[in-house]
Automatic annotation (TrEMBL):
Stretches assigned to coiled coil: none
Database matches in InterPro entries: Glyco_trans_2-like, Nucleotide-diphossugar_trans
Lineage: unclassified sequences, metagenomes, ecological metagenomes
Positions of the Glycosyltransferase 2-like domain: 1-119
Protein name: Glycosyltransferase 2-like domain-containing protein
Organism: marine metagenome
Name of a matching Pfam family: Glycos_transf_2
Length: 244
């Protein structure tokens, strides 16, 4: 990845491993950038087509950049080697309809996003969070009347190749962050138990119906570890990501 970046990028930035949090890395990159907009993309993604970036920028072109839009974000899909259940989650969260979101619909995802740099200057990403720094940022600006736009035609392929422990930790970190910013209550955590069981049943049915690739056990691996990671946040409301 770094060799490819060195070949095509104008500027490569390095940070110390001990300094890493998601918010810190993004803030550091934007701080060292120029322009009125900042594009944020996960390292393990690739655009689906050549119109991806054009679609992300488009919401900011109507009536100028100061048009009440704080962020745009695009669709995500898995590849043929992705966990079947994660692909089902992608379909659930990233539909085919363009959306203009306002509070309390705070969901967004900065694995594939565009934000206004002036708003970032006023409120950078929270560097203390263990995840969901994107939702904290969108919530902050939606609560002040701004909107977030979902652009389904700005599509990327998001590739995760995680084992059970990595899946569990990812959702643990995200659940801790969700509790920290006030969007995940104790009651919602408990509801995850029947929800993930239902999603597991749905995944099994679709796996056979769609002749899904991979193994059936991958579904159980993903749903079980997602559930356990979420439940762990009951006793861990806030941690330092650098400790893990």
């Amino acid at each position: 990845t770094q060799d490819i970046a060195n070949k095509y990028s104008h500027k490569i930035l390095s940070i110390e491993k001990d300094d890493f949090t998601f918010g810190f890395a993004i803030n550091y990159g934007i701080k060292n950038s120029t322009g009125d907009l900042a594009c944020i993309v996960s390292a393990h993604t690739k655009p689906l087509d050549k119109n991806w970036l054009k679609e992300l920028v488009s919401p900011f072109k109507n009536n100028g950049i100061d048009n009440g839009i704080a962020m745009s974000y695009g669709k995500q899909i898995g590849d043929t080697y992705s966990n079947f259940s994660e692909n089902m989650d992608f379909k659930k969260y990233f539909g085919s309809k363009e959306l203009y979101q306002s509070q309390p619909h705070y969901f967004c995802n900065n694995a594939n996003a565009m934000i206004r740099r002036d708003l970032w200057t006023d409120h950078p990403f929270d560097e203390s969070l263990t995840g969901l720094e994107d939702i904290e940022w969108s919530k902050y600006w939606m609560d002040q009347g701004y909107k977030v736009v979902y652009k389904p035609n700005a599509c990327i392929v998001h590739i995760h190749n995680e084992n059970g422990e990595q899946i569990r930790n990812r959702f643990w970190y995200e659940s801790i962050a969700a509790r920290s910013i006030g969007i995940l209550s104790f009651g919602k955590i408990l509801i995850e138990f029947p929800r993930q069981l239902l999603f597991m049943l749905r995944d099994v049915i679709y796996f056979y119906h769609l002749k899904g690739k991979g193994q059936l056990s991958d579904i159980f691996l993903y749903r079980f570890n997602r559930l356990i990671g979420t439940l762990k946040s009951i006793t861990n409301k806030k941690i330092n990501l650098k400790d893990y």
